[in-house]
Design goal:
Pfam families: Thymidylate_kin. One of its GO terms (cellular component) is cytosol. It is an enzyme of class 2 (transferase). By secondary structure, the chain is of the alpha/beta class. It is 53% helix and 12% strand. The protein is built from eight helices and five strands. It has a five-stranded parallel β-sheet with strand order 2-3-1-4-5, sandwiched between helices. Helix 1 packs across helix 8 and helix 3 packs parallel to helix 5. The two termini are 26 Å apart. The chain binds adenosine-5'-diphosphate (ADP) and thymidine-5'-diphosphate. Thymidine-5'-diphosphate (TYD) binds next to helix 4. Adenosine-5'-diphosphate binds next to helix 1, helix 6 and helix 8.
């Protein structure tokens, strides 16, 4: 059995993450892998309920951080760890980097507390009890805040995060840059301002380079 593969997708709202996950899932399936497509916050019945609260109900910053990690813990226990144990490819739209970017950099919530919560929520689940589960790779769509805002304005009604001002998203983007600098091997930075086809080509190229996708994929 091939080992499981955990790939996450990150970027500010409107960066273009969701547009690429399905194509990648199909490419992995075409080469015989089972794929679990999922998202955060969410991915389980309980975590989807927490998502609805997070996206629409006002709350203080600590409550928000605790709910995000509660949803993540349930998602890891119910979906991500079992799928990885079965040798599947898990493609997850956002994970903990989003918490450091949105709650940490965006809201200004204490990063030290986030590190503690990260460790608590992501440890003790895999075969090795000391392993803190982290993505094998994180595809980060880096786009200027104005570009993402233009795309979103044309695409959908804003939720509680998307309704934040551009200054919030500048901080979030900076938060992603800081997380990427701390884990350069894990992060794959893609210039998400390019046309969709070019972005897709670069995402595929990056995963081919790591030996995870075969040459035939587009
Ligand atoms: N590279 C791109 N160029 C132009 N428009 C894009 C690009 N990527 C995504 N979009 C459009 O921008 C909007 C937001 O994309 P989406 O994939 O939903 O972003 P996210 O999941 O990061 O919030 C959608 O309408 C999508 O069609
Ligand atoms: C995972 C996560 C998401 N979020 C926010 C970012 C997004 O604005 C929102 C939902 O993410 P997302 O699924 O990307 O939104 P959409 O379905 O509208 O594309 O949740 C956090 O604030 N912290 C987190 O840890």
């Amino acid at each position: 059995m091939e080992p499981g593969l955990f790939i996450t997708f990150e970027g500010i709202d409107g960066a273009g993450k969701s547009s690429h996950i399905e194509a990648l899932a199909c490419a992995f399936e075409a080469q015989g892998r089972c794929v679990t497509r999922t998202r955060e916050p969410g991915g389980t019945p309980l975590a989807e309920k927490l998502r609805a609260l997070l996206l629409h109900d006002a709350m203080d910053a600590l409550t928000e951080a605790l709910l995000v990690f509660a949803a993540r813990r349930d998602h890891l226990v119910q979906v991500i760890e079992p799928a990885l144990a079965r040798g599947e490819v898990v493609l997850c739209d956002r994970f903990t980097d989003a918490t450091f970017a949105y709650q940490g950099a965006g809201r200004g919530f204490d990063r030290g507390v986030l590190l503690i919560l990260e460790h608590l929520a992501q440890t003790g689940l895999a075969q090795d009890p000391d392993l803190m589960r982290e993505p094998d790779a994180t595809v980060w769509f880096d786009v200027p805040v104005e570009v993402a805002a233009q795309r979103l304005a044309a695409a959908r009604a804003p939720d509680r995060f998307e309704a934040e001002p551009q200054a919030f998203f500048q901080r979030v983007a900076q938060g992603y840059a800081e997380r990427a600098a701390l884990a350069p091997q894990r992060f794959v930075r893609i210039d998400g301002a390019q046309p969709l086809a070019q972005v897709q080509q670069q995402v595929f190229a990056a995963l081919r380079q790591r030996g995870w996708l075969e040459e035939a994929a587009p």
